From TrEMBL:
This is Uncharacterized protein. It comes from the Bacteria. The lineage of its organism: Bacteria, Bacillati, Actinomycetota, Actinomycetes, Micrococcales. It comes from Agrococcus jejuensis.
Amino acid sequence: MADEGTRVAFDREQYRKVQQLVTDVERTNDDALYGTDGYAISSDLRAQPAEARWEVAVQVGNDVSALAGQVRTFTDTFTDKTLPNFRDQLEKAEKLFEETDDLSVADAQA
């Protein structure tokens, strides 16, 4: 909340930096799931050969595979749903900021 008599103004340049950061994260998130040598972070990723016989090696392989699958599921949801929704909300907020002379008196419900 602003102090009495202090006007809170919209800084478009700083806001665009936030929007660009969200766009960059969205774009590079998918890139991080795939290596240049062909591996991918998904439930197919293994730390041990699938034919491993030693119980500890089998468990490590299964755990890494499960973790990689969870990472992939989270990242896909984050990239495909969460970030686009957040970006849309940033665009809506930008319109409010442009239409409001003093952000300290803006009504979120309006």
